[in-house]
């Protein structure tokens, strides 16, 4: 067994367990977009970043692909982690502003603005549809094409695939297709309809090394009589 520490809590896991799996074992929430149980880890969305190590050697890694190591110290909600997640969510809002999944994640992380050029490209290249088609539907009808900014998902040479059974699995799992946010001002990237409460602790700097990681936030759940 491998022993590591997550947010100050010790845990023992089997060899080959990822940080994300170890955190889930402890009940510690880590947001993800490209990770789904039953599909191979991909590490594309980077929302699951956590901070490992200490001092100047501390660094951010994707928890869904990074294996647990003996003596590893992990922080899932340090100020550095939260800043990275908010930046990533802004980028996703620039690509896919009408995804309710992304809008809900943005609201949960107190993202109130999107500072990047609005593109409305929809696809965020999470690879969920490709893995679903290949690993669960056993078809492999779609895949990644091209490189860099020309990278896209589809059938080879844009020719209708004979392997496709029109099962709809790709649309079912796609965060851009699951639910569409129907806000009234489509030119704005953030609807804000879900952001009715502002978390009282995330923006404060008293605890730079670790912010609240409870879901739901204990402070947010406190209601006045």
Features:
single chain, 23% helix, alpha+beta, Alpha-Beta Plaits, 225 residues, Ubiquitin-like (UB roll), two-stranded antiparallel sheet
CATH topology of the largest domain: Ubiquitin-like (UB roll)
Number of strands: 7
Widest β-sheet, arrangement of strands: 2-1-5-3-4
Morphology? globular
Total tally of structural domains: 2
Helix content: 10-25%
Proportion of residues in extended strands: 5-15%
Main β-sheet description: 5 strands, mixed
Q: Which regions have little confidence, pLDDT < 50, spanning 5+ residues?
A: 195-207, 221-225
> What is the annotated CATH architecture of the largest domain?
Roll
Outline the structure in words.
It is a single chain. The protein has a five-stranded mixed beta sheet, sandwiched between helices. Strands 6-7 form a two-stranded antiparallel ribbon. It folds into two domains: 2-118 and 182-211, Ubiquitin-like (UB roll) (Roll), CATH 3.10.20.740; 128-173, Alpha-Beta Plaits, CATH 3.30.70.20. The protein has 225 residues and is α+β, with helices and mostly antiparallel strands. The chain has helices spanning 19-26, 79-95, 100-108, 128-136, 169-173, 218-221; strands at 2-6, 9-13, 49-52, 59-62, 73-75, 143-145, 152-154. The protein is globular. Helix 2 packs antiparallel against helix 3. The model is unreliable at 195-207 and 221-225 (pLDDT under 50). The longest helix has 17 residues, at 79-95.
